[in-house]
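B., you asked whether I could sanity-check this one before it goes into the benchmark set. Here's the sequence:
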Amino acid sequence: MLSEEKIRERVEYCYCVYLQLSWLRDSELVEPAEYWNCLQKSSLQLSDDEFIRMTINDALLSGQDDGGLTCLIDLYQGFIYAFCEVMQIDTEEIEKSLSRDLLKKLTAEVKVKIKSP
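And here's what the prediction gave me:
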């Protein structure tokens, strides 16, 4: 069984993946055909994930407007909720635990910017 620390690491990772994929999908600067190239720059090592690569490739081949990101976002959102349920915490707690510097880094990797407070 995983320790609470390991579960927390995993939920934070899933939350970062969820954010990065969401920002990429919603970015007006990046076309679906460019998604994979952007993800190769991800510090989350998303380009090493064969499932993500195949999902994006299959979606592009079948002409999906979102390049397959919506189903990946939904998947990671499900992981987040499951981990939060196990830890008995809210997703807001995970969001608040992420540093502003980390968020800036993740957005820059997918060619978007976050608003300053």
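One thing to flag: The chain is about 65% helix and 0% strand. Otherwise nothing jumped out at me.
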